[in-house]
Amino acid sequence: MRRFTLIAIPYFWLLVLFLVPFVIVLKISLSDVALARPPYTPQLDLSLGWEGLRTFFSGLDFENFVFLTTDDLYWKAYVSSLKIALVSTLLTLMVGYPIAYGMARAPNEWRPTLLMLVILPFWTSFLIRVYSWMGILANEGTLNTVLLWLGVIDTPLQIMNTNTAVYIGIVYTYLPFMVLPIYSALEKMDESLIEAAEDLGCSKLAAFWLVTWPLSRNGIIAGCFLVFIPAIGEFVIPSLLGGSGTLMIGKVLFEEFFSNRDWPVASAVAVILLLILIIPIILFQRNEQKAREAEG
Amino acid sequence: MKTPFLTLTATLALTAGLAQADEVRVYNWSDYIDESLLAKFEEETGIDLIYDVFDSNEVLETKMLAGSSGYDVVVPTGTFLQRQISAGAFQPLDKSKLPNIENMWDVISERTEKYDPGNEYAINYMWGTTGIGVNEPKVREILGEDAPVTSWDLVFDPANMEKLADCGVMFLDAPAEMIPAALNYIGEDPDSHDPDVIAKAEEVYMPIRPYIQKFHSSEYINALANGDICVAVGWSGDILQARDRAAEADNGVEISYYAPDEGAQMWFDQMAIPVDAPNPEAAHTFLNFIMDAENMAAASNYVYYANGNKASQEYLAEDVIGDPAIYPSPEAMENTYTTTPFEPRVQRDVTRLWTKIKSGT
Predict the structure, then answer these.
(1) N or C: which end of chain B has fewer CB within 10 A?
(2) Closest Cβ opposite residue A245 in set B168, B173, B358
(3) The CATH number of the domain where B347 resides is what?
């Protein structure tokens, strides 16, 4: 009985915060847009009993999903989001791995402080941190002012409102999610393995590739998924730092919902996005499970 | 249509000294009132005022369409008001509870009837125009002394835009205003709902698109004031706010606002009571308080937008009533146009065209 209660808690959580909202979104995605409150039809009217239920279900169809295939905007937005998420994940890995490595190799007494420093930015609102990047990257911003003063450039670099700014924003924001799992994988590593490799004739570089990298693989995979999954649906960073040409599915979703007031099409876009995300999430879980089995 | 900063729901809850059961919840645009009025309302009426702010019509509309917003007074812009009235989002005003309604200005009331026949559901709060904000010295330096700052040529003529691009040009990210502006420029009806006419806006935007740095509805205030950009197509009061910020910063930036000669769009922010307002009685009290001549004048003096209240005009500061950028001359007011909301199908075409203009896709 106690075991059942324990299992019930996470399932209840999933049911209330994931499954129920998903069913509602799925239902709206099968409805039609209407000028009413709420702005879609049909509405479920339980007071009519079975008859109401029947008319409700006969009013649902897959029209909105078909509509998504008639305009290449949606396809392009999904592809462009995947691309931006993929590139920023790789960039985050390139920046995050050396940081995690340095932290894991730092003297024992420094590590809690270093860990603290990685987490510290979370104490400031995410929105304010993105706004400060706007101040740094703007044409009259800190970066350009310093570079002009140093004489490195003659005219200000146009970084703000471009995809470069979006990459900088995503890498900056998600860096801790990459650093922490890699750090935890590297920290657990037995350093005598490196000594053994070197004793057996490995160069420092070869020892890194043959020993350290494979041992930190689970951390890398976890970090990549933690960055990649939220980056696909990212809305705030591209809308604040990106230019008007930055096409991402989050922005398309916003426009369907707010500008077109088309909740049904917006829901269809969201359902497809979820289906796209389920694949990496399943891969991620499988990897976690394998890691646990290997440890256990 | 006031949109500084991303203060999506910066909540300002004012609590009066006395404990009262009565409360009214008001949802208005950010930075859109003299806050001392809020305290004055509580003092005079004994009603607790809970004041929340938003920064886009779309956010407000989503709350209205979803229902049960919990607000007693909201402030949509004309076209949005009209659509929300058809969706059944508002309740008719009980004018017997609004004695101050006689203060309203017929010049504005006549125009708002287009959205709300008989002005049955809403009263005008503020109104303004959509035009061009110019960093005067820089633009004249680039285009010469005879730069066409009072004409839409400044931003719709590719030859001018090519030269201004390096200095920075931003446009509002508001298709319902920017597409009519382009149609008006090429001599079409700005309020056209014909998809073929609307499609012509593309030909206006495509040649200038490479020279537009960004489409955004609030960033231009800071960008203009800091000198990051030279030209912005935006809302009158916001550009005047940029002018004041630049003057305060004393950074050599001089901003002017122009409602272009070819015609500018006029818009109206209207106060209405949601159909499911928890306290419609107190909502009426609030509307009546706002329509008081001195209160309305205090609000306009603070936010630099014109209001639809005739009686308030004698209390307006000289730099408000005397500024043609805020209160245009009767002739200039004739030179404005208004628009009506698009049908859902046309709206989809408009949004799609706008995405194409913005992203090239």
Answers:
(1) C
(2) B358
(3) 3.40.190.10
Q: pLDDT digit string (tens) for A227-267? A: 999 999 999 999 899 887 888 999 899 988 888 889 999 99
Are the beta carbons of B233 and B177 closer than 8 angstroms?
no
Contact B173, B359 (CB under 8 A): no
**Phi, psi torsion values for A184, nearest 5 degrees:** -70, -30
Query: Strand ranges (DSSP E) for chain A?
Result: 32-33, 40-41
Q: How far apart are CA B158 and CA A90, in angstroms?
A: 39
In a domain, A189, yes or no: yes
A239: closest chain B residue by CA: B216
Cβ contacts of B175 on chain A, cutoff 8 Å: 259
Number of domains in chain B: 2
Any domain includes A186: yes
B361–A140: do the CB atoms touch at under 8 Å? no
Domain with A87, as residue range(s), is 68-295
For residue A197, the surrounding DSSP H or E stretch is helix A192-199
- Count: domains in chain A: 1
- Chain-wide mean pLDDT for chain A? 90
**Which residue of B57, B65, B253, B352 to mutate against A (max A Cβ within 10 Å)?**
B65
Q: Do B344 and A33 touch (CB under 8 A)?
A: yes
pLDDT tens digits, residue range A166-210? Answer: 999 999 999 999 999 999 999 998 889 988 998 998 898 999 999
ipTM: 0.74
Does A248 reach chain B within 8 Å, measured CB to CB? Answer: no
Q: Any idea what the Cα angle at residue A242 is, between residues B1 and B157, rounded to 5°?
A: 65
- The span from the CA of A256 to the CA of A234, in Å, is 16
Q: Which residue has the higher pLDDT, B119 or A281?
A: B119
By Cβ distance, the residue of A247, A261, A262 closest to B361 is A247
Please give the residue of chain A at the shortest CA–CA distance from B218.
Answer: A240
Return the C-alpha torsion angle B117, B121, B127, B130, nearest 10: -70
Shortest distance between the Cα of B92 and any Cα of chain A, in A, equals 17
Answer yes or no: is B165 within a domain.
yes
How far B265 CA lies from chain A's nearest CA (Å)? Answer: 19
Q: Compare CB distances from A258 to B58, B226, B227 and report the shortest one's residue.
A: B58
Contacting residues of A for B212, CB less than 8 Å apart: 244
Structural domain harbouring B185: 129-265+339-359
